[in-house]
Amino acid sequence: MGSDDLFKKKRKDRKQRRFEYRHPRANSFLIVTEGECTEPLYFTGMQKLIQEKMGGRVDIVEVPVIDIHGEGRATRKLIDVAEQIVKRAKIFYQNIWVVFDRDDFDDFDQAVREGTERGYQIAWSNQSFEYWLYLHFHYSDAALYRDEWNRKLNEIFAQYQLGDGKYRKNDENIYQLVNRFDGVATAIRHARRRMAEYDGEHCPPSAYDPGTTVYLLAEELKKYLDE
C-alpha cells in the first residue's frame, strides 16, 4: 500500500471513529432559523426559562439540550446550512427544526418539501414570523403583507407599553414581552385554530396566507415549562 493510500485510510478511519462516538441525545433540539435576530432571540428566551426551571431540579435525569443558530440564510440555502450543522455536531439531535418565512422567496414551498424529505421538522410562516408574534395577542386570518404585521405589533406594543412601546426585531427580551399575558399559550391556541383547515397535500404553504406551523415547535418546548 502506498503512502498516499495509507494516509487516506487513516483519515477515513478517524472520520468513522468520530461519528461512532456520537450518540443520540434524548431531549435535544437543534433550531436553525432564517432570521438572525427575532427568531433566535425568541427561542433563546424559551431556552433560558427551561434551563432555569429544570437545571435546579434534582428529579430531572437530563436537562434538555437546545442549540439555536440564527443563520441569516433564506429558504433552500437554510436547509443546506442545517445539514452542515448536523454533520459537524458532537451529538445526534433528537429534534431538528428549521424555522423560516415565505417573505418574497420563490423557493419557499421547495424548501419546506426538501427539509421534510431530509427528516427535519419545518416551522414555516406565511408571510412572516411577525404573524406568529401577533397571534400572542389576537387571532387573525387576514392575508396581510409582512409590513402590516410589523405595524400591528407596533400598535400592540404601544397599547400595552411593552418594552419601549415599539416592536423591535433585535429586542433581546422579545419572548418575555410577547408572553407577558400568557401569550405563548394564546398563540398556540390561535395557530391551531388557523391551521385546523390546512390541507398540506392539496395546498402548498405559500398559498395558505396567513399561516404558521411555529406553534408545533413552541408546543414541544413549552412542555418543559409546564412540567
The percentage of residues in β strands lies in 5-15%
Question: What is the total tally of β strands?
Answer: 5
Distance between the termini: 59 Å
The average pLDDT score comes to 87
Characterize the overall form: globular
Side by side, the strands of the main sheet go 2-1-3-4-5
Q: Mind summarizing the main beta sheet?
A: 5 strands, mixed
Q: If helices are DSSP runs of H or I spanning 4 or more residues, what is the number of helices?
A: 9
Provide a descriptive summary of the structure in words:
The chain is an alpha/beta fold and 227 residues long. It is built from 9 helices and 5 strands. It has helices at 3-20, 38-55, 75-88, 108-117, 129-134, 146-159, 174-178, 183-195, 214-226; strands spanning 24-33, 65-70, 92-101, 121-126, 211-212. It has a 5-stranded mixed β-sheet, sandwiched between helices. Helix 2 links the parallel strand 1 (24-33) and strand 2 (65-70). Helix 2 packs parallel to helix 9 (214-226) and helix 8 runs antiparallel to helix 9 (214-226). The radius of gyration is 20 Å and the shape is globular.
